[in-house]
Amino acid sequence: MREDLLHFIWKYKKLALHDLKSTDGEALEIIDFGQHNQLAGPDFFNAQIKIDGQLWAGNLEIHLKSSDWYAHKHEEDPNYKNVILHVVWQHDCHVLTEGGTHLVTLELKNYISNTLLTAYQKLMDSRNTSFINCENNIGSVSEFHMNNWLERLYFERLEQKSVEVAELLKRTNNDWEGVLFALLLKGFGSKVNGPVFMQLAKVIDFKIIRKVQSNVQSLEGLFYGMLQLLEAEDILDDYYLGLKKEYEFLKVKFEMGHKFVGRPEFYGLRPSNFPTIRLSQLANLYNSNNGLFAKLMEAETSEQMHGILKVVASDYWSNHYTFGKESKGRAKVLSKTFIDLLIINSILPVKYLYSKSIGKNSDEQIIDIMSAIPSEKNVITRNFQGLNVPLNNALYGQGAIQLYNNYCKLNKCLQCQIGASLLSGNV
User: Distance (Å, rounded) from C-alpha 344 to C-alpha 187?
Assistant: First the structure.
């Protein structure tokens, strides 16, 4: 038995409600089950219970055993003074109120159907599953119900991502353009180089980016120089030497001293993801878009965002992936898939919080944008699709990632609408 099941039973009224009696034999009638509290304090607020015909209003506390009241030291906590009913699975001791009387206790185990307990055990038994607890039943959930839950989970995920945006705002003194720059840098670095690219955003003041963005060589020189990519002595091509000279000039002009960031990784990356290519693409994005932040915040569709973000690296990179080493000629354009990831992970979290800050609700617009983007393909989304969960777009794909990481992996089945729905259907 787990306490979260007791919470579920009480919240969704999954107990026999007739002829309830306390452990002291008092008749109990539940008038109002109360409001579930997910924070500190009693588990349910503002309940109403008739005890031997007398109406009581107050809070409820739920435990596996009565003695947990003392184990959790609730007798010392003033937040629990207004508890009118102690709901437990097993009554193993009397609990005294502050006034010295017995706290009215309801022992649940005699009022719960075996069908519910069997269904719960089956749901939580992962011995015969390889991905998630409910993988044998999730396909029976209606698409409407599933999509509703995945949409809510996407916004839960967006709220979590907006925490990073809020922290960046504090660090940049509410410079929204600087925040977007930092998150774009992280996005252009992807999983491997995202952290070191983000460090670059912390070291370089975005005011410098504003001042030099009209010159793409200056932007590239800054990026490559600060990431220690201009330190080779045996590369003699004009492009490389020009960047090196530009970086030395900018260091003096902006009194940057010897600010460096860790060197990015090349190993294990596809050549199109090499930091040399990504940094040039980012430099060209800022060089070709004065007022990039305003443009992206005003964009209402994924197509408009793609039009802004579809940039190409500088000409040098058409036949290079690294400095000084020629390769087969091909323009290094940002791919549609990569732009989609930038929209999902870098732009929409900023748009979401920025809209809130100016009193605008952008939820419907964000839903439309995410619905027009294909679902991300990874182990999690592929596994859900293998269970006949249709992830028709990025909105549902991101929701599925949130579902797996924050519910399935943590066995929070009863806090998940899918798990709760499956369990309710078996009662």
Answer: 10
CA distance 55 to 46: 13
Below-50 pLDDT ranges, the chain: 426-427
Question: Could you give the 3-state DSSP secondary structure of residue 211?
Answer: helix
Structure tokens at 265: 């990784």
Residues 6+ apart with CB under 8 A from 150: 391, 395, 396, 399, 400, 403
**Which residue in the block uniquely carries the two structure tokens 């900018």?**
250
Reduced to 3 DSSP states, what percent helix, strand and coil does the chain have, rounded to the nearest 5?
Answer: 55, 10, 35
d(CA 237, CA 243): 10
Mean pLDDT of the chain: 92
DSSP 29-78: EEEE--EE--SSS-SEEEEEEEETTEEEEEEEEEEEETTHHHHTTGGG-G
User: Phi, psi (5° rounding) for residue 278?
Assistant: -65, -40
Name the pairing type of β-strands 20-21 and 27-32. antiparallel
Name the pTM for this structure: 0.83
